[in-house]
From TrEMBL:
Name of this chain's protein: Pyridoxine/pyridoxamine 5'-phosphate oxidase
Pathway: Cofactor metabolism; pyridoxal 5'-phosphate salvage; pyridoxal 5'-phosphate from pyridoxamine 5'-phosphate: step 1/1; Cofactor metabolism; pyridoxal 5'-phosphate salvage; pyridoxal 5'-phosphate from pyridoxine 5'-phosphate: step 1/1
Family statement drawn from the similarity comment of this UniProt entry: Belongs to the pyridoxamine 5'-phosphate oxidase family.
The gene coding this protein: pdxH
SUPFAM superfamilies: FMN-binding split barrel (SSF50475)
Originating species: Idiomarina seosinensis
Amino acid sequence: MDLEQIRRDYELGSLPREQLAASPHEQFALWLQQAIDAKLSADPTAMTIATVDAKGVPSQRVVLLKSNDSNGLRFFTNKNSHKARDLAVNPNISAHFSWLPLERQVQITGSVEPLSEQQNDAYFRSRPKASQIGALASNQSAPIASRELLDQQFEQLMQRYRDSEVPRPEHWGGYLIKPSQFEFWQGGRNRLHDRFTYTLADGQWAIERLQP
C-alpha cells in the first residue's frame, strides 16, 4: 500500500470571516448541531482529549461530550483513570473534534475544574443501569488478568443491585473544560484550508485567521 498516494481534495465548503459567530461557544454549538443533524457517525459528540503527566508525557483518548454552554464543555470519567491522574497534577487539556465527512475540525485548549457532587450525582442517575454497574465493575486503566474476570465482576454487581439503586462510586465524576482558545478548521481546495482562532484575553474573544 502506497500511503503517499492516499489523498483527496476538500470541496464541500468554505468558512468566510463574516460567517463566524462573535462567540466561539456559539460557533461550536452550531457546528456540533450540524454534525449531529448530518448523522455522519454514531458518535458525533466524541472528542479526543490530550493530557500531560507530571513527567511531561502526553496521552490521548476519546471521551464523549455530555454538555456544553458558555461556561465550557463537560465530560465524565473514573477519577482513578490515567487521564484523571494527569489532570490532578496538570489541569491543562486539549480537546479535538474530527468531523471529517463535513471536512471540519475543532480544537479547544483550556484547563479543567471538577464538577460538583450534585452534578455528578445527577448525571450518574441519568445513565442506564448497565452503565452505572460498569462504572462500579471497572477500575479504569488498572491491569486485569482476563476479560472473563471483568465480566464476572459485572454480573455479580448486576445481581447485587438488581432491585436497588446503584450508588455512584466516589471516584467517578466529571470535569468542566474552561476554554482559553478555539480553532475552527474548514477544509479547502488545494490544501488552502480556512482556519480561525478565538483567543480569550481580558474577558474578550479575539478572532484571527491562520494560514493553512
